[in-house]
Amino acid sequence: MTDKITRITDFDALDPLRDQYRGSLISTRLLREELARHHVALLCIDLQYLDAARGHGVFADAAASGVPLAAQEYYFHKLETEVLPNVRKLQDAFRARGLEVIHTRIQSMTRDGRDRSPGHKRLNLHAAPGSKEAEFVELVAPVGDEILLNKTASGVFNSTNLHYLLRNLDISSLFMVGVYTNECVSTAVRDACDLGFYVTLIEDGCTTVTPELQQATITTIRDRYARVMSAAEAIAEINRARQAS
């Protein structure tokens, strides 16, 4: 595993366009201005019982889930000991600053899921309204009147009115957390970048089912589609902006 990660990292270091792309991402000065003007939001992706809780949804029957048991153990260990606590810390920091915390989840509009995307139908992925699968994991659930968007596809920008809402809210910069890093999170990062948003991916605020997939996705995104930083680094930026304002 170490050799694989080293090779990926070495390839990234040789990327001839890395500096050019990095220069187009959000600067520290611009971030401070965005934070001061409340143009920044935290986007929390699919942290629900369907795919982020042991013994529920996709993992209700661990042996039949299609995910090897060792991969499930890695995923839930990372989720429970690192990702969910970090997401909650970020949510608290954003809330204390009066910044938007926005949540997405997989949920159909109909009980039988007939409105789901073709992809979710093929995968038999379904969280009906009012179901346990559609509930958020309690630690990171929405608070008050925080915005919640339901989707039945990987891409939240393609399957909801998120872009319209962000423009209405005058949001131009997004911090992203959630699951899975290589699927719904990565899709959101790339779409947001293409739409002109400044994106920051929190590397210890997201995870997937293997360390190799996690590392490969982070390496692909870093300094190309988004800044990548830790939850602690992001919270420190938010706190510095709060003190300066």
UniProtKB/TrEMBL annotation:
Ranges for domain Isochorismatase-like: 81-233
Keyword hit for Coiled coil: no
Residues of the signal peptide: none
Protein encoded by which gene: rutB [H]
Molecular function terms from GO: hydrolase activity
Key words of the record: Hydrolase
InterPro entries: Isochorismatase-like_dom (IPR000868), Isochorismatase-like_hydrls (IPR050272), Isochorismatase-like_sf (IPR036380)
Presence of keyword Metal-binding: no
Name by which UniProt lists this protein: Isochorismatase hydrolase
A Pfam entry, by short name: Isochorismatase
